[in-house]
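Journal club prep, shared notes

We agreed each person brings one worked example of a sequence with its structure written out as tokens. Mine is cysteine desulfurase. I'm keeping it raw so we can talk through how to read the token line rather than staring at a rendered picture. Sequence first:
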Amino acid sequence: MKSKQEYAVKENSLSDKFAPKYKDDFPILNQQINGKDLIYFDNAATTQKPESVLDAVDNYNRTINANPHRGAHTLSIRATEAYENAREKVKDFINAEKSEEIIFTRNTTESLNLLANSMEALVEEGDEILISVLEHHSNILPWQQLAERKNLKLKYLYPDQNYRIQLSELREKLNEKTKILSISQMSNVSGVINPVKEMIELAHQNDALVVVDGAQGAPHLKTDVRALDADFYAFSGHKMLAPMGIGVLYGKKALLEELPPFLKGGGMIEYVKEQDSTYAPLPEKFEAGTPNVEGAVGLQAAIEYLEDIGLDKIKEHELELTEYALEKMGELDYVEIAGPTDLEDRGGIISFNLRDIHSHDLATIVDSEGIAIRSGHHCAQPLMKFYQLNSTGRISFYLYNTKAEVDKFIESLDKVREVFGYGS
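Then the structure, token by token:
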């Protein structure tokens, strides 16, 4: 099995040397769970934090902690500098044109909700919103609610038998009434990477605005929002080594200036009078209340850590692990893969089931071996229904995972079968 994409797995194994070089940077991984060395395969949900991120957050809290943009005293000035330095780092990370185009939120979910509320000003009754059935609930519910509030039509793209959305499907569904296309960069269930650039081009030809859910893309793919020509791009820090509670919404400046603010209160105003108010310029207009400065500082440190390694190298490592795991799982006749079994246009996420065993039982038993995996519907119930799946187990890789860990995971699957009386 060889990759057809640019991140082709090389004959000389990268993974054998790659992960051990960095694993010791993550103190949480140096522990035992249920008497076994921890193997963490739930990275699509949340990644772990290296020492440099932990130290950056700790240093901020110990030496700076103050409200930014609100005071003339030294600590407030330092907090403002730390917060805005983080914004500048995010801007460069995704190659945005201006720092004002970077809005800090709590996570991808809040970014998408912000857009679905603020973009209400851009649509009218009878307009259409286009999403796909493979989306995370966070990229479905906000658009459902917008469609209900404004009497819009919500339409879906459907993937093929290999969990991939074809551009022909998009061409068929786009029309002059389509105002918004919101699509994930990478599926959190199948790991499939959508042809987002081509999708954006097609949508723009129909004068539709495009929102990209980059929750799974940003941590693994070198993303250039200007090259993509994305109108909006959302992602979360906790899926890329940063703390929980810090997210990003990128938007083209002209579009963000056109949208009304989502939350209102301190920090996002220019003048407040008894009967009316005016709003601060970007990005403050969308950042009401005291911001998560320590989260932003942690996100900056996480980006610096990832850039020092190189996202291309991390991607190559993940694909090598994915290929290895798929080959090993393919040797087991009781394993059913829910997603593509090749490496073309996919990331390091594998969803699967063991025949006649529920995914929650699977996850519980492998946890007894110290292995953390995901189980359930992965906040993607429409996709599960489309493929007639009740739930799946899911393993997902990051830079600190190894082939030896994959081997132990494969061994644990036999134990799951033994517990249910199926034998090895």
